[in-house]
Amino acid sequence: MVKSRKKKMPNHPWVMAAMFCQTTLEEKDNVLSAIRIVDRFTIQHPADWDKKTPLTMIIHGLLGFKSGDVKGERKIRIFGISPKGKRKKVQELAVVFMGGDTGVNVRLNMGFGVRTPGVHWLEVYVDNWPATRMPLTVVLEPLASPTEEGGKPAEEKKQSLE
Predict the structure, then answer these.
(1) Which of 128, 61, 72 is nearest to 102 (CA)?
(2) Which of 47-61 are b and which e, b meaning 16 or more Cβ less than 10 Å from the residue's Cβ?
(3) Structure-model confidence comparison of residues 114 and 154, the more confident one
(4) How far apart are CA 58 and CA 135, in angstroms?
(5) HSE of 42 in the Cβ direction (CA atoms, 13 Å)?
């Protein structure tokens, strides 16, 4: 007699979307839009930047989950991981899953202090389940000095145009 193997369905929601973007919009009919999906940011820093002071970067994004068999409250925890491997919790929130084809959307709007260029990661957990990882490449470059364009300081150019 052959025993039937029943696959046990996972007790976690399904990731529907995980992305960084310029902004998210929510229309009157509760439909979300992610505008300008990105995975690379260029941050300009002053020429005299000491490389110890964090540069501020605002990140917008969207996480979308479908409930599946999950019902009830769950915690979504988000950790940031630097290119050097430093890990830090950046956000935690409680959400409620209703089961079936319903879901939960999380609009991200977070400020980060960045010192290191390279690939940064956001790890997303639902309770203790690692739902997804989101890579974000950060490029650091110096601000162009006012004398780099045409050899005249910006103020002199302005005066000469008037």
Answers:
(1) 72
(2) eeeeeeeebeeebbb
(3) 114
(4) 15
(5) 4
Q: How far apart are CA 135 and CA 77, in angstroms?
A: 16
Q: Which of 68, 93, 95, 61 is nearest to 78 (CA)?
A: 93
Asked if residue 62 lies in contact with residue 37, where contact means CB atoms within 8 angstroms, the answer is: no
Task: Check residue 83 and give its pLDDT.
Answer: 96
User: Reduced to 3 states, what is the DSSP secondary structure of residue 144?
Assistant: coil
pLDDT at 138 > cutoff 80: yes
Give CA–CA dist 35/57, Å, rounded.
18
- Separation of alpha carbons 160 and 2, rounded Å: 90
CA dihedral (12, 30, 22, 59) positive or negative: negative
| Rounded CA Rg of the chain | 22
- State the residue for tokens 């994004």: 61
φ and ψ at residue 159, rounded to 5 degrees: -65, -40
Q: How far apart are CA 107 and CA 50, in angstroms?
A: 33
Rounded percentage of the chain residues whose pLDDT exceeds 70? 83
Dist CA 147 CA 156 (whole Å): 10
